[in-house]
Amino acid sequence: MKRLAFEPWGNYAIALAASVECLGVKPWTRTATTPEVLSLGVAATPDSACLSFKACTGHFIKAAQEGVEYGVMVNSRGTCRLRYYRMLQQKLLEERGFQLFIFGFGYDGIKPPLIRHFDPDPMSFLRCCAIARAKVLAVDAIEKAAWRIRARELHRGDTTRVMNGCLSTLDSAHSLLEIRRVREGLKQCFGKIAQKKDHVPLRVGLLGEATVLRNRLLNHNIEEILGGLGVEVSNFFLLGEEMKNIFGIGLWGRHSRWTLKRLARPYLKSLVGGHALDSVGNAVRCAGEGYDGVIHVCPTGCMPEISVRPILRKVSHDTGLPILECSFDEHSSHVGFVTRLEAFVDIMRTKRK
Prior knowledge:
Blueprint: E1 3-6, H1 13-18, E2 26-28, H2 35-44, H3 51-65, E3 70-74, H4 82-95, E4 101-105, H5 113-118, H6 122-150, H7 158-171, H8 176-184, H9 186-191, E5 202-208, H10 210-214, H11 222-228, E6 231-235, H12 239-246, H13 257-264, H14 276-288, E7 293-299, H15 303-307, H16 309-319, E8 323-328, H17 334-352
Parallel strand pairs: 1-2, 1-3, 3-4, 5-6, 5-7, 7-8
Helix pairs in contact: 2-3, 3-4, 6-7, 6-8, 13-14, 14-16
């Protein structure tokens, strides 16, 4: 059976793997980039390329080395350079003699090239889509529970172990009923974790470029570091909400694109590519909802996110919301990053007092 490689999207890899069963291919994916894969991407790409491009290119090179025949890369539109990544990655693979073909996914018609190529049975395709969507929403529910409990856990690491167990159970679920049972059991699973009494954690929103937000190697495992410092995080890139925005569902929801545009309008009135407008809108939301701070993450040189950083500073100045700006490349120091997070947490605690 031929295989299909997905770009790494964190725990959503579980849902993405379920989405291709109807295509007659075997999914090849990982929940996080490894140092080996990143080094492959760094060696194959120009120094000026962003960290996300290097990580994703390394992911496809590793897949090609293992004989994977196909890959799929999310397309983009507008001013973000992501719109060119698939073509550049295909050229890099061909120059190295690899036979892996990368499909673009989205923004080119009702049926993306990947679906047109494999032409699955409509009923099987719809069933896979339903299971994939249910798994995406389950991943969101598991991670939200982990963000809330990790900041309150009595013994370091308990929340991560429970979360990984729930994700493993979800990965082995093959029906909507099994997925629903996983979600229904979350309260019981996370309820077993011993928690600190009367602890009111700091609340921090994570904003920025989607790949860095969702890749543990690229963001230096920021969610677990902050959780260990007693901080409850909210990662504002949720694939379940993103799917609603793509298909125009839930236009008036809390995470809808219309709501984010409305929140960002006093500071940013036009799209500048990627999720930059979302970053501004979510920063304004965090200020209004009493968050203690915001951390904005992106790859070094990411044009859309770098463009809105002066705007985020203006939001911080107007609202008093502390905002930490973090840019990453392959040379970023983990120890230095942890030190910055610890200092930022101290600032937020002092401000709260």
